[in-house]
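Subject: D-alanyl-D-alanine carboxypeptidase-like protein

B.,
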Amino acid sequence: MARDVQITEVDSVKKRVFVKSGCIALCTVFLTGCAGLKGLDNPYVYSERTTLYQSSAVSGRAEPFAHDLCIVSEDPSSQDNAVTAEAAAVFDLTDKKVLFAKNPFERLYPASITKTMTALIALKYGNLTDEVTVTKDAVITEAGATLCGIKPGDKLTMEQLLYGLMLPSGNDAGAAIATHMAGGIDQFSQMMNDEALKIGATGTHFLNPHGLSDDNHYTTAYDLYLIFNEALKYPDFRKIVGTTEYTTTYQDGAGKSVNATWKGTNWYMTGERQMPEGLTVLGGKTGTTKAAGSCLIMGSSDSSKREYITVVLKAPNHAGLYDNMTNILNKIVE
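Prediction pasted inline below.
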């Protein structure tokens, strides 16, 4: 069972590069791991975090890491009383600008937005045509876990599992992908963390592929932008997260056909909320747990085909989530 996996603690030491008075200096930041992060109320100092991307120190890149990224270049403590979520941000992917940011580097629980990284790993390192046999590791029994309904012995393609992961937010699909690709939850989580560091998401640490809360499973609004931005480079990711409803047939362990219809949970796509005039939703991922609150990251475009990523973390409830998201989307068109 996924919940029985032995958890490895986050590295206690991370290296960070920052720019001060035009000079690049190397500093070592000691993190407290699981202890000291209860409540995840330790935000990054923005001047240390953002200038990391202006160096070439991430993943051994020869060119400056930030040449194609939105960078928070000044104190992002945006004042807007209408944005009541703990963290929120708007990123203009065309002009590489941050249009709004509230607590973009605060460590928070991502809930099922975690699955964006799971999908990225599957698309980058896996094959959509792979046949996956579901194992007992996909049995999720935690209260409140969302499932797509697969069972041990079922045979699905990786593509089918990705729809089951991203639309109904199936934790079981995430576990099945992890086991198929890496042999287990532990090993796949390491792949997720390695990929996070590779794309510069240094404020992130994952313990599972689905997002069930743990003190040592966290990310930031800015890191989620980096992850979602990377995922958008894959046409199949855009296709999957832009789908409202998906119907498929797969085989169970006895060889019988199983028909499934999975529906998305983004209210802008299901018609329960309207996008601001002039904007079209491209797709996204929701996430909700008691610890994480209500969360949403998504991509959108305007009439000029300019694209944006918006993220809201730890809104008080679903209605408040979409109120917050609409408020920050309006900053694109105002």
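The chain has nine helices and eleven strands.

T.
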